[in-house]
Task: inverse folding
């Protein structure tokens, strides 16, 4: 969502009114505020699903059974009883006991969604009706009707940082960006079976898995069973609320019994088809004996320090052990991990054992500024215990630190097309060329869609794309058309009376923006086909390489090798683009220019010295 920061601020300003005008503590008003956001977002999804259901019913003839909760769940929404719908609360007469009404709405939702019993807040009478009415009105933001982002999780993180920054930082609570989560799903490809997130936070992995299944034409309610562990109770409640909003349910456990370092809360060791997680990095103070006793350490036991604890790097490898151990014989795992874990010396033996299993599938380096509240690089790790024999001793390394879109100076992301391109590298490594060809066809379809924006030569070239080489030709024509559009727009605006210029300039700028966005999309097709052509995997310096176990071990004996899984160690650096300038010739010119500047400086010093002498100084 483009205006997510604006939305966050608007919602926080409303929440801050509670802090300023009520007598509640932060612990008392945090969940009620988040509960209202949940209610408003759920209503937006409900309205959208209801419209789709009505359209489908209108197209059918004969008897039409009444709509039920399952109809909404199939559309990725939660059924909301009438008295719980946001517009019901908005339209209550002045002077109504709104606090009781909101409490009742939460109770009604829980009655229709058993997973929410005991989860939704019910303390709205403590806020005060006038104040609560104002907040409900302010939270009626149309941005919460939009699709395409884990809004609940992201706003939750923002609010948690405002409500209780110590909690947010001490417990490692930070939102996993949607593009990272979706990349994980694109690689592990959840279809059906059991999925576990042993550090599930607000449930973003589950939501993304559900979206992936729907995008592939399936119904996640019928094909996936979700299990989560979350130590922080606030997070677990938000996870259940987040899942319910998306028409999902899951088995989520919280509290000390759900601390993954010490508990396999669901008894799923060796039973999972999919594991996906963004665990807290570099956790210290994990009790060594208790962690060892809890098991799930097939790669080896971490070292114990003088405090009888596991080091921060050792704790990272506890997570890596768990993700591997939870998988069944054909299971896949994808998770976010601190980049230091790919070559940490203390865990070299565990990493060797992991590589020797043949189950390391993909290692993808992300780089800085992908996390919303943290500026830190990370690596996405992928395991696959069902790898085909031809790939068993190979690992695909991808270094994507130079490949992203800048949302702002402090935030990067992968666009939907960039996600598809990165996924295409994985498909080709796996020999799934059909998926690559489908993506090329999707790019051709997009070229046809945007052609009317350009007209003329650019439109002709977009509509005429046949082979992959035609994308670059069409893209160049698009860029030329954009420059022509800008020049024509300036000429048109300058010819208008001053009073008419602003409105027309804004209208033409919107047209230019649409053209530039389209050119960026087709530019992604150019990026892809320049590297992989018609659909054959090839190592690309600075981007990707398939390395064998022998290459990972290197020239060192097995016991001395670092067994590094750092992508940059294998993919190398991209070639320097030829700018058409002869290096030696240019250096000679620079040297001559430097000598001339030195001569001029010497002459100037002589003049200055003479002037001082004439002044008697």
Result:
């Amino acid at each position: 969502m483009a205006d997510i920061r604006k939305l966050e601020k608007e919602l926080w300003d409303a929440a801050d009114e509670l802090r300023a005008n009520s007598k509640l503590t932060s612990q008392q008003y945090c969940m009620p505020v988040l509960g209202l956001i949940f209610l408003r977002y759920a209503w937006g999804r409900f309205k959208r699903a209801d419209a789709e259901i009505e359209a489908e019913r209108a197209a059918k003839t004969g008897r039409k059974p009444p709509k039920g909760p399952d109809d909404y769940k199939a559309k990725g929404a939660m059924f909301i009883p009438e008295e719980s719908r946001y517009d019901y609360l908005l339209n209550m007469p002045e002077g109504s006991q709104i606090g009781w009404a909101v409490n009742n709405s939460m109770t009604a939702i829980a009655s229709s969604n058993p997973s929410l019993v005991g989860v939704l807040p019910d303390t709205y009478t403590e806020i005060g009706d006038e104040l609560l009415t104002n907040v409900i009105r302010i939270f009626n933001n149309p941005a919460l009707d939009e699709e395409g982002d884990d809004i609940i999780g992201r706003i939750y993180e923002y609010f948690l940082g405002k409500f209780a920054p110590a909690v947010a930082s001490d417990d490692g609570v930070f939102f996993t960006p949607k593009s990272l989560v979706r990349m994980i799903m694109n690689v592990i490809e959840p279809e059906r079976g059991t999925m576990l997130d042993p550090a599930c936070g607000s449930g973003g992995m589950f939501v993304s898995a559900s979206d992936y299944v729907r995008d592939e034409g399936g119904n996640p309610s019928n094909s996936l069973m979700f299990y989560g562990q979350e130590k922080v109770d606030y997070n677990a409640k938000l996870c259940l609320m987040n899942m319910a909003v998306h028409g999902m349910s899951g088995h989520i456990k919280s509290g000390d019994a759900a601390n993954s370092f010490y508990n396999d809360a669901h008894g799923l060791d060796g039973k999972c088809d999919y594991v996906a997680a963004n665990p807290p990095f570099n956790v210290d103070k994990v009790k060594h004996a208790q962690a060892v006793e809890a098991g799930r350490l097939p790669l080896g036991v971490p070292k114990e320090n003088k405090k009888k604890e596991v080091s921060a790097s050792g704790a990272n490898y506890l997570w890596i052990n768990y993700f591997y151990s939870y998988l069944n014989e054909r299971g896949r795992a994808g998770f976010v991990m601190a980049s230091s874990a790919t070559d940490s010396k203390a865990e070299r033996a565990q990493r060797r054992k992991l590589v020797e299993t043949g189950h390391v599938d993909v290692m993808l380096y992300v780089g800085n500024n992908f996390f919303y509240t943290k500026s830190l690089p990370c690596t996405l790790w992928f395991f696959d215990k069902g790898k085909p024999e031809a790939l068993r001793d190979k690992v695909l390394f991808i270094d994507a630190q130079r490949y992203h879109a800048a949302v702002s100076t402090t935030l990067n992301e992968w666009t939907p097309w960039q996600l598809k391109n990165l996924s295409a590298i994985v498909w080709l490594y796996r020999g799934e060329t059909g998926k690559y060809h489908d993506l090329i066809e999707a790019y051709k379809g997009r070229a046809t869609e945007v052609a009317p924006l350009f007209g003329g030569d650019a439109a002709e070239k977009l509509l005429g794309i046949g082979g992959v080489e035609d994308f670059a030709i069409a893209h160049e024509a698009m860029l030329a058309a954009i420059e022509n559009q800008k020049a024509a727009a300036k000429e048109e605006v300058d010819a208008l009376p001053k009073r008419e210029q602003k409105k027309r300039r804004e209208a033409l700028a919107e047209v230019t923006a649409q053209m530039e966005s389209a050119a960026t999309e087709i530019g992604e097709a150019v990026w892809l086909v320049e590297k992989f052509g018609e659909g054959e995997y090839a190592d690309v310096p600075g981007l990707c390489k398939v390395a064998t176990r022998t290459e990972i071990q290197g020239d060192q004996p097995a016991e001395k090798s670092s067994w590094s899984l750092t992508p940059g160690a294998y993919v190398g650096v991209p070639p320097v683009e030829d700018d058409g300038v002869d290096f030696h010739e240019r250096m000679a010119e620079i040297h001559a220019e430097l000598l001339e500047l030195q001569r001029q400086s010497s002459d100037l010093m002589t003049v200055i010295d003479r002037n001082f002498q004439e002044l008697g100084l």
